[in-house]
Amino acid sequence: MRLTVIGTGYLGATHAICMAVMGHEVLGVDVDTSKIEKLASGQVPFFEPGLPELLTKALDSGRLRFTTSFAEAGDFGDVHFICVGTPQQADSEAADLTYVDAAVTMLAPCLRRRALVVGKSTVPVGTAARLAGLLRELAPAGNEAELAWNPEFLREGFAVDDTMRPDRLVLGVTSAWAEERLRDAFEPVLAQGVPVKVTDLQTAELVKVAANSFLATKISYINAMAEICEATGADVHDLAEALAYDDRIGGRFLRPGLGFGGGCLPKDIRAFAHRAEELGVGQAVGFLREIDGINRRRRARTVDLVVEICGGDVAGKRVAALGAAFKPNSDDIRDAPALDVAERLRAAGATVVVYDPAALESARRAHPGLEYSTSALDAARGADVVVLLTEWNEFREIAPSAMAAVVRHRKIVDGRHALDPAGWRAAGWEYRALGRPTVAPLEKEHRR
Ligand code: UDX
């Protein structure tokens, strides 16, 4: 089967590479010549564990090629996947559909024979039906050019695994022919027993935003509990662990701390709330605004905690910021809570020295006012306070005594609940984390 993948960003590049490795003939398409040149020469333009090796394998097999020509894509493909971005609009909470519309508008005139166009991008519900009309109108093949929706659930850092072995496949279709084409395209995935849900276009679109909203809700729920813990002296870490033993609740996405960022969860919940309002059912997901609010407050509270541990003022203080990426195993700094906190501390007068294992370059370009170091210990040299903002494993492995030897003051704020408080306190550190008491509960007990 011959597939094209339109859009070679995070989602598209991963999808194109994995589909070629699974045995399909694949043509990756993008309007960005530099991205296409990079990929064609074997370079993945972003950080994703395991993907560079697979790109080499796919290129060597001769089954993966790249182009900037939509005419070539139209001639080549039986199934065309649309994998372009849907960022938040600059002046509104709505999703910006410019790229999705442009992809269909450029591809459709090149579809001269029966073909299936499959949207994978995250879109407001109702977009697929609109695009289906546009496709029929613009394609020389007319009604023979059909639209389907197949939302993508991959996580950065686990993109290869999530594509090769997803939790489920969702196929939004309007004909048995479209379903059959998609089942053929995903045959290697389905052969592993991956569950498949076949449904209509609008349900398929909704599954994605409903899933991301649920995940964001889980994170904000535990962070809301952290606020209660802060007011009562309770420990949100213990609370989350105790909740997780209930299988109905589960422990995943229940990690308290600085909250969610990245290119998906924050903009997806806002676009969903906005779309629901347009549909006249805004009240149904009004809670998503609360979820967003709780999440934003975590960043402000983390700054407050750093100010507090510094004695009420960070002006003139040296802060070591460990982490810049929105999460570990990624170089993505879109809506990164870490850099938001770092910038707020700088605005309050601190000198902030950032270290991140993968996102240093992009952070340096986007935040030139911050200072940068090439190791955690280097960043911590002479620091008045260390703030852990992204939970990379290498930060978990830092010996408290080694860091104690280079800092000015042994004060640490663990924004991600990644460190063992007992170990750091035993090495003489003042350890603080949002939603955790200043001393461990048992120590408190003994003191009474
Ligand atoms: C998310 C969805 O998980 C994925 O299914 C979808 O396709 C795209 O959006 P991603 O943005 O890659 O994926 O990151 P994810 O692993 O979901 O983490 C999002 C944010 O939540 C990160 O900033 C992370 O640090 C934070 N997070 C996650 C928490 O604060 N607590 C948790 O318990 C889990």
UniProtKB/TrEMBL annotation:
Its EC number is 1.1.1.22. It comes from the Bacteria. Residues 320-421 form the UDP-glucose/GDP-mannose dehydrogenase C-terminal domain. SMART domains: UDPG_MGDP_dh_C (SM00984). Pfam families: UDPG_MGDP_dh (PF00984), UDPG_MGDP_dh_C (PF03720), UDPG_MGDP_dh_N (PF03721). It catalyses: UDP-alpha-D-glucose + 2 NAD(+) + H2O = UDP-alpha-D-glucuronate + 2 NADH + 3 H(+). InterPro entries: 6-PGluconate_DH-like_C_sf, NAD(P)-bd_dom_sf, UDP-Glc/GDP-Man, UDP-Glc/GDP-Man_DH_C, UDP-Glc/GDP-Man_DH_C_sf, UDP-Glc/GDP-Man_DH_dimer, UDP-Glc/GDP-Man_DH_N, UDPglc_DH_bac. NCBIfam families: NDP-sugDHase. Belongs to the UDP-glucose/GDP-mannose dehydrogenase family. PANTHER family: UDP-GLUCOSE 6-DEHYDROGENASE TUAD. This is UDP-glucose 6-dehydrogenase. It comes from Actinoplanes hulinensis.
